[in-house]
Amino acid sequence: MEVFQRRREKLAHFIKGSAMVLTHYPKAWRNHDVDHPFRQDSSIYYLSGYEEAESIFIFRPGHSPESVLFVQPKDEVAEMWEGRRLGPEKAKELYQVDACYPITELEDHLSELLLPVDKVYYEFHKNPEFDKLLLQALEDGRRSRGRTGLGIPPILDAKEMIGEMRLYKDAEEIEVMATAARISAEAHREAMKFVSPGVNERQVCAVLEFVFKMRGADRIGYNPIVATGDNATVLHYNSNNQECKEFDLLLIDSGCEYRYYTADITRTFPVSGTFTSAQKDFYDAVLNAQKAVLEVCKPGTLFKDLHEISKKHLSQSIHDLGLIKESADTILNEELYKKYFPHGTGHWLGLDVHDVGAYLVDGESRPLEENMYFTVEPGLYVPQDDSTAPEQFRGMGVRIEDNILITSDGYKNLTETVPKEVKEIEDLMQQESLLTKI
Ligand code: GLY
Ligand code: MN
Ligand code: MN
What we know:
- The protein is α+β, with helices and mostly antiparallel strands.
- It folds into two domains: 2-165, Creatinase/prolidase N-terminal domain (Creatine Amidinohydrolase, Chain A, domain 1), CATH 3.40.350; 168-437, Creatine Amidinohydrolase (Alpha-Beta Complex), CATH 3.90.230.10.
- Helices cover 37% and strands 17% of the residues.
- The strands form seven sheets. A six-stranded mixed beta sheet has the order 6-5-4-1-7-8.
- The chain starts with a helix and ends in an 8-residue tail after the last helix.
- It binds glycine (GLY) and manganese (II) ion (2 copies).
- The site of one manganese (II) ion has 4 residues, from loops.
- Glycine is lined by residues 222, 253, 264, 347, 353, 377, 401.
């Protein structure tokens, strides 16, 4: 609770006199009478630690009560069917907020809570039903003042404000992120040992999730991509149900979520355990680009420079591999590389896999600073039916993704224990996985 309180104190400096209103997501996880697992909204968790469904958190620094939580009321029948609830009294005590009400009483309090604030920080479109309630409460507040000629307070994007805080990870976050990374790395190593010709992508998914859960992760951080052969050229492939063939590569993009923080790791390796010569050339092109990007990961480097470097390296490789005949400069300057490297080089990482935080400051790319955490993930993808590419590279997709924490004078790669050198991968794949015995 100390950690959550400290975060609220920090936020208070930025938004004194205003209110931040954070909503839960609507009950989208209930689908055709099936309850999908619930996960708390990242920012509600970040500021309060509260984990139950259907909550609203209102933070009004400089006003009293300052922190207000709306929670599910106690309800014997609902609790018997859907799970236990703390209820307002216990939640107030446990989460150390100034006031806690049942969410069924939201409309009785909302207008009053928003009446004295200068500005409202809120994220529209997350919970459309609440969007309407909020606007109505502000309008009711305006009317309640009588004829003042004044309007409702300005509404600013909460995501941008909280993103500015969540971008710089604190010591507690770094510890949890490191655990998420360590567990995810172990799962990738286990998957490398497990894979051999004939296994199915879904079995590899099971190995990943088995290790995640056995090591204490709460859930998967995002749907894994386990893509064999030319499935790897589909960037968001999620069928995960095909057989791994002997001479194909396998791309795995997967990370667990541990205490709300996710890792996001990609590795690509040969199903057989040994890279063919063409696979090695193609793979090393991506590996070299990734290493070049890592070299400049330190305070002061502009975020956009990470992408500049991978574009430059991959454009040269696209030329050298004969994928495009033009010069490396032309491939880069005319953006021809986008045919084979269509995505960015990385993104902020944390409570969400594509975490909040602005990439631009005053219209310019943001310089990296200590305690920022992001992915570095260049890739190359050649569709199977690309008749202009050399035949040996058709149907190949390679991405290599690590999770990087900026330190005072450089970076720490929290996912470095998953091998990525050709020789290291081949050596690890020689080891037998206990899970093949199942
Ligand atoms: N796994 C999602 C991403 O790499 O961005
Ligand atoms: Mn990523
Ligand atoms: Mn990823």
